[in-house]
Structure formats: C-alpha cells, structure tokens
Amino acid sequence: MVLAVLEPRALQQLQQQVFVEVNALLRRELRAAAGELRRGASAELAASGQAGEGDYNLCKEKGGSSSSSSAAQPRQRVARLSYGSGGSGPGSDSVSEWPADPTELSSGAAGASAAKRQAFLDGSVPGLPLHEAWSLLLGGFLPFLAAEAAFYADLLLLYRGDEERLRDGPDSAAPDAKQQRQGQASIAVVISRPPGCPLTYAGSQAVEGMLAGLEGDFVALSDLASRSHQVLLLPLLATALAWQQHLAAQPAAAPLAALLESLAGKLRGAWGSFCAGQVAAVEQYDSRSKMGLQQGIKHLHVLPFISQFCLMVHDLEVALVEGAAAAAAVAAAAPSQQQQQQQQQQQTAGDDGEEGQQSLEQAAAADAARSVRAAADALYDELCPRLLSRLERLASSDAKYGERCRLENYGYLGEALRGLAQKLPALQQHWQVAEARREAALSGYVAEQLAYSKLWKLLEFGDKLDALLKVVSPPEVSFQKDCSPAEVRSLMRSTMDGTDKKLEALAGRVRKHLGGGALFNVAWAAVKEALLARYEHLEWLLEQCYPTTPLRPSPEELRELFRATSAG
User: Fold this and answer.
1) In 3-state terms, what secondary structure has residue 194?
2) Which stretches of 285-348 are DSSP H helices?
3) Report field, pTM of the whole predicted structure over 0.85
4) Is 140 exposed, middle or buried (0-12, 13-18, 19+ CB in 10 A)?
5) Quick one: CA torsion of 423, 424, 427, 433, rounded to 10 degrees?
6) Residues in domain Exocyst complex component Sec3 C-terminal (predicted)?
7) Which pLDDT belongs to residue 233?
8) Cβ count near 280 (within 10 Å)
C-alpha cells in the first residue's frame, strides 16, 4: 500500500512480475496434479476396455459374431464398469435381474466409485474412475485458483475504486475521532469494499494473465471421455456447469468461469458428435454384410444395436445420477474467503446473503442436472424410433424368420428397459411402442409355430368347418367334399398319432429359436394356450357336425400330454 501511494507505476511493474511468477507456479502445480489424475483415469479406462466395457458403438458385435448360437446373457447391472456381453445368441433375453430404478442402478456404482477414489488417494490402486478424477481436479484446484486470484487482486489493489479508498483512508464519518486519526496515520490501511466489487480493467487483464494457460490440463482429462465411456461426458458436464455457477459471483474468478464455459462447450460438442455417430451407425447397419447375402436373418438373434442400446441406457442413467450428485456437492461446497466476507457485510447490512447465495447455487446445481437430463432424453428421442424402424426393416426382409427376430429383440428391449421406462417419461413412450410390437410379434410367432407343427392339418380342418357353417347347416357338413365321417376319422388318426412326440418336437423347435430362458417360457405358454383353444373349439365343431365322431385325444388328454413334455 505504501508503494501504491508513493509510486503507482512501480506498483504496476510489481503486479506484472508477481502474476508472471504466480502463473508459472500455478501451471506447474496444476500440471503435476492433472497428470497424476489423468494417469489414474487412463489406467482405469484401459482396465475396463480390456474387459469389453465402455464401447458404446451400437452396431459393434460384442463377444463374437451375431451368428453365434451360444446364449449370451447380460450380467446383473450393479456397478457402472460391469457390462454384460451384447447377447446375440438365443436366450439372450434374460434381463430380469437388471435393477428397475435409476437410484438402485447408481447405489452400487456410487459405492464402488467412492471406494476406488479412496483407494487411489491412499495409493493402494493405480486406477481412478474418470468422473471421480474430474471431480477431484475441479474440486481441488478451482477453489485454490480462485482464492489465489482473489488474494493477489486484494494485495495488489486491483479492485475498482481501491485507489480512491486508499487515498481517502477510513471513513470520515467514523464515530471515534481518535481511531480516525490513527487510521489516517497508519501505513496498513484496511480497505473495505462493497459486496461484489468488480476489478478494474487492468486488474481483470492482470488476473486473466495470472490464470492463463490452464485450460489444456483440464481438457486433457475431459478428452478421455470423448474417445470411450462417452456416457461420462454428461456427469463431467454437470460438474463443470455447477462449478461455473459457483465461481460466477467472484470477480477475481471470472477467468475460471470463462474456462469452465469453454470446457462445457467442448463437452457438449463431444456429446453431440457421439450422438450423431450412434444415429448414423444404426441407420447404416446392414446385417447382410455380417452374415452373408444368402443367409438372411436366420442366424441373427438379439441385434447388436438393441443389446448395446440397453447397456448404454443403464450406464447413462447411472452417470446422470452421479452427475446430479456431483453438482449438488459443488453447491454444498464451503464458500471462499471472499464470499464469506461478502456474506458478513450483507448480514451486517441486514441482508440474508448466505442463504441467498446457497439458494442460487442449489438452483444452479438443479439446472445443471436438468441440462444433462435433457441431453440424454434428446438422445433417446432421436435413437429409439430409428432402432425400431431398423429392426422392422431387417425383420421384414425374411418372411420365415422375421417374427422370431421381432419377438427376440422386442422382448429383450422391453425387459431390459421395463423398470427404467416406468421412471423415465422420455423412455416410456418408446418402450410402450416396443411392448405393443412385442405382443404382435408373439401372436405372429405363435401362428407360425402352429402352422409348422404336425398338428396343423387337423387345426386347419377346424377352420374349414367354420367356413362351411357359414353357408350350410351342421347336418349338411358331412356331405361336403373331403368332409365325410370316415375322412374325418382318418384325418384324426394320422394327425394325432404320436401326439406326445409331436408336442416334444414343437417345444424343441421353439427352444431352438429362443433358447431356454424367460422368453421361451412366455412363447411356449402362448403356443400351448393357442393350440388348446383351437383344439377345444374343434371339439365343439365335431359335436355339432359329427355327433358320433368324438375327438381323440380329448382336450383334457391333450392338456395332460402338454404337461408331460419336457417344457411342461
């Protein structure tokens, strides 16, 4: 302050020299810490990459070709870095163990992330989850950088009006004249600034120079999420937005707020590129290039973009919950020394500054969470119709196996997203479409299996009787072509001979198509119900048209034969 009074030009030279030296020190400290965190995050990403995790290419075959006949069942979704293989074989519908609630999804992941974070800080493990590394970097350095900027701005009198306040000394209206004279004579003049006092233009330039060159270390860490584990872009974005709001009220931290705004823009751009790539991958997917031009979809089961989408959605929902928690933690962070002084001044003036600032930061954290939630919902709205449309086009290309393909994929999608769809409006409408199509595919598949079964001729005869009864009376039916009692008895004998073996063959065909999981049980129950319903109707028709020709075996006997099969 003596220098400011005696030689203002020398103070400017001191400011420049101090900020150059401080900038070099800050960059060195930040580079060392960011490098260590980047190495930890890279080690964790590399380990998860070796386990087949974090690649969200919707059309990538995971665990081999989609022609694989082995059942591939997604594992239980407990923590983020615990992926199931993108099931492509029959029976890959077994997703009943996946948690239904996003908070349940996040509980295991949050515990695992916190444990890894503490283990990394203790030095017992080399890896650290990327979003934890990001939170450590921002939470550890941004308050420190803001405090350093505020300290030197205060020390070197960079706030607007400091020269006038320094020249005028203490308030001339001070009640104690003795204290006033002592204050005027004192070298260590205490400057009292109003809340939110801005920096001078030169001060802003000086602080900006002091904090220059820091963005690269932050970008190097966030870029890791752009190459893999892209769902982590959203929690990184939420944390950056929350810190931007946290620092916005501090004049000396304006360069940091601008840095965070730039980082948020880069993260949004990376997310937009990821979403565009996913959409393009689905639209360009062609199963024939993978299966051969002549095989059609016979060997396709759960399509890669269906299984990958379900995995991505679950991991994305975990990431969103963690992002909201990280943003809330920023809002709850302790205020800086400058903010504390401002709050004390506001309280002295009768304003409730502390609660007001907390309310603003909590609102900002909620806005950050809503922002990333909206980004995820937009991806769902863009991807889901394309997924369903591409599935329909693929299934329509094969009349023989199309319904089976629809049933497996709509069944997988519906079961994997059932719990989440009940909680997330953005997913619910698309899930309802998939469920309706699953029901239609199930009906079509059941009809195909009945037509393929060796019992079909008798069931088809029942359809013929229904058609005849629309034009002739029941007694006249037996006089129609191929409808004599002898021909009916012959048809029953040839069709129902060895019924138990024929039912086993039918069950085996369904099992071959769908594996032995939950989807098989649903489909087999539907086949059994449809066959018995038509068989009972046939019995009624025979009673009307052929009173002396009972149906053998009876519906009750056929039901017992169903129970005796391996499928039950």
Assistant:
1) coil
2) 287-291, 304-331, 337-348
3) no
4) middle
5) 50
6) 204-547
7) 94
8) 13
